[in-house]
Amino acid sequence: xxxxxxxxxxxxxxxxxxxxxxxxxxxxxxxxxxxxxxxxxxxxxxxxxxxxxxxxxxxxxxxxxxxxxxxxxxxxxxxxxxxxxxxxxxxxxxxxxxxxxxxxxxxxxxxxxxxxxxxxxxxxxxxxxxxxxxxxxxxxxxxxxxx
Length: 147
Ligand code: DQA
What we know:
Order of helices and strands: EHHEHEHEEH
CATH architecture: 3-Layer(aba) Sandwich
Largest sheet: 5 strands, parallel
Strand content: 15-25%
CATH superfamily: Dehydroquinase, class II
Shape: globular
Number of strands: 5
Distance between the termini: 13 Å
Helix content: 25-40%
Bound molecules: 1,3,4-trihydroxy-5-OXO-cyclohexanecarboxylic acid
Radius of gyration: 14 Å
Strand order of the largest sheet: 2-1-3-4-5
CATH class: Alpha Beta
Number of domains: 1
């Protein structure tokens, strides 16, 4: 592994830019990825960015990250609030997990207040929009350097 960070994005995050911009902002996922690639380069991290609308694919990616990625950054979208399967995969992996949400899920509907992902995360970043991903890379760098 070479300071590798795998960033997993869940359902509907491919729609960023047009999806509820009042909640999620005007940036597209490609915009956020570009900023992460730039920052990753500055921090000496290899950043791989993925998005899927499928719960099982997220589970597969978490399983496959073991021994390949040093850190997992995950915005599981709505599966955050529903997926025990994703929680089980995150608990099974030895790869440290950083949870990110663009919006402040605690300020929103009650059903978004609970996160299964949080139970397996070393830390959580919510409410900073796309910048939260850059914050997660800073945190990833610190975890890797202190390992
Ligand atoms: C989200 C918050 C979730 O509640 C929602 O289902 C999403 C996006 C966020 O980044 O703010 O799809 O994960």
